[in-house]
TrEMBL record:
Protein name as annotated: Benzoate/toluate 1,2-dioxygenase alpha subunit
Entry keyword Metal-binding: yes
PROSITE patterns documented for this protein: RIESKE (PS51296)
Keywords on record: 2Fe-2S, Iron, Iron-sulfur, Metal-binding, Oxidoreductase
Annotated family: Belongs to the bacterial ring-hydroxylating dioxygenase alpha subunit family.
An annotated Gene Ontology molecular function: benzoate 1,2-dioxygenase activity
């Protein structure tokens, strides 16, 4: 039995100023409405241009329930299509990535398409003569996703025909991507390794909000990172050099005061980041030669500005997190109301010392892998929350920390680093984008 349907008012009522109803995490109907409305109305990350190094390269992804694919055409341009043959609907590509050569070929009836999506050939095409096939959508080839923006090689798409423009959707938040790319002396990133992928038994939004939750590290990670730090202190002896591994996981045990002073910046449309004045990435050892390369590329002042920006986690609503200081992007891919596939991608800073890439890969393994030092702690908390939210004792999730009684929405602000305002910001955006086209239907009916 459906309780919400397309009732925009009922869905928006699930989000209060400082609380959200448990249904946003546990109700399968709400999840399906997210797939149908929220994701198509949002700008969603598809992939990185470096994954499409040469003509014929392709990647696949999903935007909500919609399978899409991106490919590099012979002229170097990148195109994004719906991943289905216009004949019988068979998926053209089922692999995460690959090289198709000069054309795509449907595995069912061998319809073929150029790498820009246009129809190339149909076996026994004479069978369509006089049928009016030339006037059908199928004759146009693979259906294109019309709203695509490639920003500094990051590919984003919006499925809805109308909606918020890319520039208005992201605004100043793109400064995190700018900073990550600018950390390369050549101003370029490259994907050279497959991501770490593993399934989480929880709702996707739990992972997103956890990225700016600074009140859990010293608690949830005490037995893992905390123990590792204690072992290092016991065993370090006369060593004055802190190993890279300890530099990576040690800051997770920073006290509340550290996070309070570090700050959080919020932006409109659900975006925001931790680590404004300081972050857990601030005190890594210098990599020999790197600063010299950056100064040569940007000049001394600009080089120090770039490297001095050490934001912790930047959330790009709805479902990615970018960690510029260690060149990582995490994609929280919704599978079911209680199942989320996480992809953790590492980018190489083109032209920078190999040691930086090594550090990023190590961070990904130590923090984001199922066998990591700290990642499994978070997974345990997500699973407990997914189970606990089935309790009828309280149907509302409290997000009231440092709430002042009223908050202006869709603003840019810097706030206390332990505030839950970015989570409130996230859910304001959730209500806005999931009901966006529902509101239009209501207005038309009225």
């Amino acid at each position: 039995m459906k309780r919400y349907g397309g009732n925009a008012r009922a869905i928006a009522a699930l989000v209060r100023e400082a609380e959200v109803h448990r249904d946003v995490y546990v109700d399968p109907e709400i999840f399906e409405l997210e797939m149908e409305h929220l994701f198509p109305n949002s700008w969603v990350y598809v992939g990185h241009a470096s994954q499409l190094a040469k003509p014929g390269d392709f990647i696949t992804a999903n935007i909500g329930r919609q399978p899409v694919m991106a490919s590099r055409h012979t002229d170097g341009s990148i195109h994004v299509f719906y991943n289905r043959c216009p004949h019988k609907g068979v998926k053209i590509a089922s692999e995460p990535c690959g090289t198709t050569g000069k054309f795509f070929r449907c595995p069912y009836h061998a319809w073929s398409f150029k790498t820009d999506g246009s129809l190339l050939a149909i076996p026994l095409k004479k069978g369509y003569e006089g049928t009016g096939f030339g006037d059908t959508q199928a004759n146009e080839g693979l259906s294109k996703v019309r709203n695509v923006v490639i920003y500094r090689d990051f590919i984003f798409a919006r499925l809805s025909v109308s909606g918020v423009s890319f520039e208005d959707y992201f605004g100043e938040s793109l400064s995190t991507i700018d900073n990550m790319v600018d950390r390369s002396p050549e101003g370029k990133l490259a994907v050279q390794a497959t991501p770490i992928r593993y399934m989480h038994t929880c709702n996707w939004k739990m992972l997103v909000e956890n990225q700016t939750d600074t009140c859990h590290p010293m608690v949830a990670h005490e037995s893992s990172a905390g123990t590792a730090v204690k072992v290092w202190k016991r065993e370090q002896g006369d060593s004055t050099e802190t190993p890279m591994a300890v530099q990576l996981y040690g800051p997770f045990m920073s006290p509340y005061e550290f996070y309070e002073q570090s700050g959080i910046r919020i932006w409109p449309n659900g975006h925001g980041h931790t680590g404004v004045a300081n972050s857990i990435h601030s005190n890594y050892s210098d990599i020999p030669g790197y600063l010299d390369q950056m100064v040569a590329a940007y000049g001394e002042q600009r080089a120090h500005e770039i490297l001095g920006e050490v934001r912790h986690n930047t959330v790009y609503f709805p479902n990615i997190m970018v960690k510029g200081a260690v060149q990582i992007l995490r994609n929280f891919i919704p599978i079911a109301v209680d199942k989320t596939l996480v992809e953790s991608w590492v980018y190489r800073l083109v032209g920078a010392p190999d040691k930086l890439y090594e550090r990023a890969l190590m961070y990904n393994r130590f923090i984001n892998a199922p066998t990591s030092i700290v990642g499994h702690d978070d997974l345990e908390m997500y699973e407990r929350a997914q189970e606990g939210l089935k309790s009828n004792g309280n149907q509302w999730v409290n997000l009231r920390r440092l709430y002042d009684g009223h908050e202006e929405q869709d603003v840019t602000a810097v706030i206390n680093g332990t505030s839950e305002r970015q989570m409130r910001n996230q859910f304001h955006a959730w209500a806005k984008f999931i009901t966006m086209d529902m509101d239009k239907r209501i207005e038309a009916a009225e």
